[in-house]
Design goal:
The complex is a heterodimer of chains A (285) and B (285). Chain A is an all-alpha fold and 285 residues long. Chain A has one domain. Chain A is built from 13 helices and no strands. In chain A, helix 3 packs parallel to helix 8, helix 9 packs antiparallel against helix 10 and helix 9 runs parallel beside helix 13. The longest helix of chain A has 31 residues. Chain B has 285 residues and is mainly α. In chain B, 72% of the residues lie in helices and 0% in strands. In chain B, helix 3 packs antiparallel against helix 6. Classes of the chains: A mainly alpha (285), B mainly alpha (285). Chains A and B meet through helix 3 and helix 10 of A and helix 2 and helix 10 of B.
Chain lengths: 285, 285
C-alpha cells in the first residue's frame, strides 16, 4: 500500500481511490467465491432453502403468538410485520455483506489470517468475502416479502416523508448491522473464542428488533437507545411511520437520527477494527 | 455388547474433560443463550400478560420455561452436532473406532453423554442463575405449591421428588436427542455429508422442541403434531415435569412417550450400525 500512494498525486484523491479499490476488490472476491460455491449447485440451493426456512420459522412463531393475542404491546400484526420486515431485510443484506466476519477468530487460530495479511488487498475486504455464498440471500426474500405485505396492511397515510423514511431506515439498518458485524469481528482479535458471544449482538440484535421495543420495559428501551443503540435501527423511525407516541417521550428529532447513528457506529466499528488489527499477533508455530 | 461399564465411564469422563476446556467459548455461549432467553422471555411475557394461564403456565412459569429451554440447548444439542463421527467417517479414521473391542454405538453414546453432562452444568446452570436474578422463576422448593401439585407428597420430599423426576426426564430426553443425532451421523456412511440432514434437524428442534415457545399454545393439528414428534421429548417434556404441569396419568404418559422414542431411535441406530459396518470400505482399501 505504501508504494502505491507514492504514485498517486493528491492525498484526497488517494483516499477516494482506495475506497473505490476496496469496493472493486470486494466485488471481485465475492464474484470469485460465488463461482466457487456455484460448483456445488445443489448444496448452495439446499443451504439457501435452509436459510429461507429458518427465517420462515421466526415468522411462524409470530404467527402462532398472534393466534392467541390481537396485539403485542399495542402493535397489531401488520405493525409487528413492519418491524420484522425492516429488521429482517437490513440484517439479511448486512449478513450477506459482512456475515463471514464471524469466522475471523477461526482464521486467527489456524493462522490463515497471516496469508491474507501479505496479500496487497485490504484485510477487511478479504475476511468479509471469505467463503462468500449466495445462500446468504435466503433471508432477504422473507424480509422484503413481509415488509411488502405489512406495508399493504398498514393503515397510515402515505406521505412522501413516510416513504422516504422507510427507505432510509432499511439502508441505515444495513449500516448499523454492518457496524455490529465489524465491531464483533474486531473484538475477536482480543478474545479469539468470542465468536459465539458475537451471536448475541448480531442474531440477538436482529431477533430483538423484530418486536416493538416497548416490550423490553423502560430500562430496556433506555439501554437499547443510549448504550446499544439498536432502537435507531427500526424502532425510532417506525414510531414516526406508524404514528405512535414514544413511550419514553424522547424528542421527535430521535425519529430521524438513524443516518447519524449509523454513520457514528460505522466510524466506531472501523476504528475498533483497526485497533484490533494492531493488537493482532500471529499464533506462530 | 462388548466392553465393560468401566470402559464406557472412562470414555464419558474423558469426553467431559475435553468439553470442560475452552472457558472463553463457554462464557461466550452462556452470554448468548442468556441474552436470547431475556429477549424471548419479554416477548412471551407480553402474550402472557394478556392471557394469564395460557397453555397451562402463569407468567413466572413461562419465564422459567424459556430459560429451561436456553439452558438445555447445548446439553441436548438442539442445534445439532456433539457427535464427531461424520468427520471420522469422511477421513477414514472410523476404521480405528470399529476396530476397538467395544460396542460402536455405546462408545459414541458414552462420549456424547460425557459432553452432555458437563454442558448441563457449564451451559445450563449460568443462564438459570442470571434469570433468577432478573425474573420471578417457578422452581420446586419445599414451600412451593408446584411441588405439592407435582406429587402426592408435600414439602421437602415433594420438591425432591419433582427434581428427581426432572433428572429422569432430562436423561431420557438426552437419549432421544442422541438417538436422532446418531442416526444423522451414521447417514454420513451413505451420503458423505450430513450437513443437509443436520440443518433439517435444527429447523425441527427450533420449532418443535419448545425452545421457541411452549408447544401447548400451538393451534389444533400443529400442536398434535408437535407433541407427537420426538423433539418434544428433548425440552418441552422435561420442562413440564419440572414445572409440575405433568402429574398422575399425564406424568406417566410423558415419561412413556420419552422412553418410547428413545427405544425406537436407539434400536434403529443399532440396526443401521450393523448395516454400516458391513458396508464400510475405507478409502484406498
Amino acid at each position: 500500500m505504501a508504494d502505491n500512494s507514492a504514485t498517486r498525486p493528491g492525498h484526497k484523491r488517494h483516499n477516494r481511490g482506495r475506497r473505490y479499490e476496496a469496493v472493486r476488490h470486494y466485488l471481485l472476491f465475492a464474484g470469485a467465491w460465488t463461482r466457487v460455491a456455484w460448483q456445488y449447485r445443489a448444496s448452495v440451493l439446499l443451504l439457501a432453502v435452509g436459510q429461507f426456512l429458518a427465517t420462515g420459522l421466526d415468522i411462524a412463531v409470530i404467527g402462532v403468538l398472534f393466534t392467541r393475542v390481537p396485539h403485542l404491546a399495542g402493535f397489531g400484526l401488520a405493525e409487528v410485520g413492519f418491524l420484522f420486515g425492516t429488521s429482517c431485510t437490513a440484517f439479511a443484506v448486512s449478513n450477506m455483506l459482512f456475515g463471514t466476519l464471524e469466522r475471523v477468530g477461526e482464521r486467527i487460530r489456524d493462522g490463515s489470517l497471516d496469508v491474507m495479511l501479505v496479500r496487497p488487498v485490504g484485510l477487511l475486504v478479504q475476511v468479509a468475502t471469505d467463503g462468500f455464498s449466495p445462500r446468504r440471500l435466503g433471508g432477504i426474500v422473507q424480509g422484503v416479502g413481509v415488509l411488502g405485505l405489512s406495508l399493504a396492511g398498514l393503515n397510515v397515510p402515505w406521505t412522501a416523508g413516510r416513504v422516504l423514511l422507510v427507505a432510509t431506515m432499511v439502508i441505515c439498518g444495513v449500516g448499523i448491522f454492518s457496524a455490529v458485524w465489524i465491531a464483533g469481528a474486531a473484538f475477536q482479535f482480543v478474545v479469539e473464542q468470542a465468536a459465539e458471544a458475537m451471536n448475541a449482538v448480531t442474531y440477538g440484535g436482529s431477533f430483538l428488533t423484530q418486536y416493538p421495543m416497548s416490550i423490553y420495559g423502560r430500562d430496556g428501551m433506555r439501554l437499547l437507545t443510549f448504550l446499544v443503540p439498536l432502537a435507531f435501527l427500526n424502532w425510532q423511525p417506525a414510531l414516526y411511520v406508524l404514528d405512535k407516541p414514544d413511550p419514553l417521550g424522547l424528542p421527535s428529532l430521535f425519529r430521524f437520527a438513524s443516518p447519524l447513528v449509523a454513520a457514528v457506529l460505522l466510524a466506531l466499528a472501523a476504528t475498533a477494527w483497526r485497533a484490533g488489527l494492531r493488537h493482532y499477533r500471529s499464533t506462530g508455530s | 455388547m462388548r466392553g465393560g461399564v468401566g470402559t464406557y465411564l472412562a470414555v464419558a469422563r474423558y469426553s467431559a474433560r475435553r468439553y470442560a476446556g475452552y472457558r472463553a467459548a463457554t462464557a461466550a455461549g452462556v452470554f448468548t443463550n442468556t441474552v436470547f432467553g431475556i429477549i424471548r422471555a419479554y416477548v412471551l411475557l407480553q402474550v402472557w400478560h394478556q392471557r394469564p394461564g395460557l397453555g397451562g403456565y402463569d407468567t413466572s412459569g413461562v419465564v422459567t420455561f424459556v430459560f429451561l429451554g436456553q439452558g438445555l440447548i447445548t446439553s441436548m444439542a438442539l442445534f445439532g452436532g456433539g457427535i464427531d463421527l461424520p468427520e471420522r467417517i469422511r477421513s477414514g479414521a472410523v476404521a480405528m473406532d470399529m476396530a476397538r473391542p467395544v460396542g460402536f454405538q455405546t462408545w459414541w453414546l458414552a462420549d456424547d453423554a460425557g459432553r452432555a453432562a458437563i454442558q448441563l452444568l457449564t451451559r445450563g446452570l449460568p443462564p438459570m442463575l442470571v434469570a433468577a436474578l432478573l425474573f420471578d422463576l417457578r422452581l420446586p422448593t419445599p414451600a412451593s405449591p408446584a411441588a405439592a401439585a407435582g406429587t402426592t407428597a408435600a414439602g421437602v420430599w415433594g420438591a425432591a421428588a419433582v427434581w428427581g423426576l426432572f433428572a429422569v426426564s432430562v436423561v431420557l430426553g438426552f437419549l432421544v436427542s442422541f438417538g436422532l443425532r446418531y442416526l444423522i451421523a451414521l447417514a454420513t456412511f451413505w451420503l458423505l455429508d450430513q450437513r443437509g440432514l443436520e440443518s433439517a434437524y435444527t429447523l425441527f428442534t427450533v420449532f418443535f422442541s419448545g425452545i421457541s415457545m411452549p408447544l401447548t399454545i400451538m393451534p389444533g393439528v400443529l400442536r398434535d403434531l408437535a407433541e407427537a414428534l420426538p423433539f418434544a421429548a428433548m425440552m418441552q417434556v422435561p420442562a413440564d415435569v419440572l414445572l409440575g404441569n405433568r402429574t398422575g396419568a399425564s406424568l406417566v404418559a410423558a415419561i412413556a412417550f420419552q422412553v418410547g422414542w428413545a427405544v425406537v431411535l436407539l434400536a434403529a441406530g443399532r440396526a443401521l450400525t450393523a448395516h454400516a459396518t458391513r458396508k464400510l470400505v475405507v478409502q484406498g482399501g
